[in-house]
Each structure stands twice: as C-alpha cells, then as structure tokens.
Amino acid sequence: PDLEAIVRRDLGADLIPDPTQSCDGDGRDFNADDDEYRCFGLRESASFHGTHVAGTIAARSNNGAGVAGVAWQTQIMPVRVLGRGGGGDTLDIADGIRWAAGLGVGGAQPSRRADIANLSLGGGGPCPTPFIEAIASARQQGTLVVVAAGNDNIRTELFRPANCVGAITVSAVDRIGFPSSYSNGGSN
Description:
It is a single chain. The strands form 3 sheets. A 3-stranded parallel β-sheet has the order 3-5-7. Strands 1-2 form a two-stranded parallel sheet. It has a two-stranded antiparallel ribbon with strand order 4-6. With 188 residues, it is of the alpha/beta class. The chain contains 5 helices and 7 strands, in the order βαααβαββαβββ. The mean pLDDT is 89.
C-alpha cells in the first residue's frame, strides 16, 4: 500500500524473455508485475526483493502504514530482470539498466528515464562487458547506477556489479556506522 501510488507502471518493463522464469506466462512485455501463484508453489517462495528495496527507498511517510522510505518523495520505475528463484541473465540485466536510462530495448523505450537505477543484485566474478557498456550508456544519459555491495563478507572487487566502473556501490553499516559483519566492502 505504501508504494501503490508511486510505482510508475506506465514506465515499467518485464525484460525476462523466458516465460518459465518470468512467472507471468509470457516473454518480455511492459508489465513488470508477476503472478506469484503461477510460479511459486509451496516449495518455493517469492522473495520480492526488488519490492522490499523499493519500499526502503520510497515508501511514503507519515501515513500510518508500513515503513518510511529514505527518499519518500520519489517515484519508482519497475523494471524486472530477475525471475524464478532470483535467476537472471547478464544481457537481461544490462537491458534493464538501459531501459531505466530511457534508452531503447528491443525497439521500445520508456517515455522518460529514471534519475537513478538501483540494482540490488549480484554475484561473484568480474564485471561483464554488457554491464560495463550499459552503465556507461546510462551515465551518458544522466542516470546514476547504484548497486549493492553484496552480503558475502568478501571484497567488492570480487562481486559484480559492485566491481563495475561507473557504478556507485553501497555497503551495509551498523547503527554506529561501522561495516556490517556480512556486508561486502572494499576500495570501490
């Protein structure tokens, strides 16, 4: 409910081409919602991590509901790049960055770009070329790309997209500002 009025579904996109991964019965489209009941049975549960992070960022304040986001006067452009079980493809994620930056993907583009693209996702390994190119293109459009440092207590240089040049990498800290025991960290 805290997000209902601020999610710009008219700007959103589902960039997962595989219907069995996207959980919505079709491929890429302009509906970033998924159907948790179609995809997630009793053995699996949807994490809806992106929705959780969107609430941390933008949930409305002083309304007696839920939580208060840190930037509660913002709007959210929903862009789905991860599907069933958090699975996703490097090219789909890169296309998500491009979409958020207002650049065309598959012959379509949103009517406006996001000021900030947030990626609360990642994995081990070097920054892949599609991420490097997408982040550079987004920055040229004026879109900041903010990425998660990761939660494996390793150096961010070993975790992508935290190690991608041009991305702003965010780590977790405790209540007094020290790095959290689980958070990745490093020079970037």
